[in-house]
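Crash report, auto-generated. Payload:
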Amino acid sequence: MTDSVNVSGHSDAIGFAPGVYWIGALDPSLRTFDIILKTANGTSYNAYLIRGSAGVAIVDTVKENFAADFFRRLESVAAYDEIRVIVLNHLEPDHSGALPQLMERAPQARLYISRRATAMLKGLLKPCSSAFEYTTVVTGDSVSLGDRTLRFLHTPFLHWPDTQCTYLEQERVLFSGDVFGCHFCDARLFNDKVGDFRFSFDYYYAHIMRPFKQHVLDALDIIEPLPLDIIAPTHGPILRDRPGRYVRHYRELSTSSLSGEIGQSEKSLMIFYMSSYGNTARMAKAIYAGADAIDGVRVSLFDLEGGETDPFVDLIEGADGLVFGSPTINGDAVKPVWDLLSSLVVVNLRGKLGAAFGSYGWSGEAPGMIEDRMRGLKMRVPLSGIRVKLIPSDAELEECREFGRAIAATLAGKPLRKQVLDLADLA
Amino acid sequence: MPKARITFQDIQQTVFVPVGTRVIEVSEKVGSGIIYGCRECDCGTCVMHVEEGWNNLSEPSVLEEKVLRENMAGRHDRLACQAQIIGDVTVKPA
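Recovered output after restart:
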């Protein structure tokens, strides 16, 4: 057991609970992770070894380039023929990179993965996956190491479909995978010893876990009842000092701040637009007026020219319906609309209602392109967008008001469309 | 051409379609909450629950059954990108 450590410059495993060791690797020079994440001081690939009276378990491995560090640390506390159990909580290559070598060195070991990990195992380890024997596990399953028991928690989509957590009952340690992790490299390893990693923790949540908030809440429901002395994630500091704080913080981060603003019986509809000559703006205002006439829907109208992308992303996360208006310029929607639509991968849009509109000069592709993007974002787009050639007439503005009424009524669960249709009517 | 009826329970919308139409061809047009990822029987995003008319959908292929199993789909769940409508059914997002 270790109080203060500094693992830079030596290659031993670090014990942090009886029979429980860190055997990971530090990557201090990494500056960009997975294309999308900045890492101001690098990251760590945390892997763990648990020794029981009837054998040894390894929980997660490291990125392939760091396998030598991992194996040196492993060899400092165990022999390969002692390994009975290998658990992969998450199959992303930064955690499964050393798995093929590990399975070669410990062929007697059994691999435990979540049920949803099987297809990924085959996809990631194509040349050698057929040689692996594995057992799939769900919540309630466990594996014994004699005097130690590892219990599995099914926590999918944190942040891949395959993710799970593993709980060591006797030492009250949660091996959490990427949950409660962050890209923060510090050789002192433990949250009560490392530098200030609060920004890295929140930044990691915002970019990795935020799109899966409901899954985070589902996972917290099964994690919170566990007595926890230590949370051991796959990246960043090991959380041994008041780990419950991080569990509570995850629940706070996963609860929408807008929930108190819009009534339980109301739906939130947001209309975003850009306009060059004011024609798409006129359409937006007419759609807004129409939608606002429907009870049970709270409508907001935003000109993208007057706002920054990030606050709009925050707003959109709490909305039930989204309408985007763009003129068509050179056969495309305009850049601020694409900037916003391309920034929405960090929030969950699944099932939100979407619609599009816009004025155009001669071809008018923008609304259709926006609709395709919304479908790609897993939104539902039940009403075909509305397009107006150049300046909207009074009659066309009335069509826009009707379009707004139809969107809002659909969002409120009272669609204006006939309840029984023929497929040919929808063409 | 013989027709069948599909009802999307989440939006209370019924559509008459030619027999053999895939659910995916209808659900997006009416705005059901059934959503899609790969659209080719790989990712399991479009799992839907069949409320009524389980036997009025085409039989699942071996591949669809594998994807349903991997995604821990429940009883009477199908992939909307694969299932063809051969009689009256009622479905909703899983």
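Post-recovery validation: Chain B touches chain A through 25 residues (CB under 8 Å).
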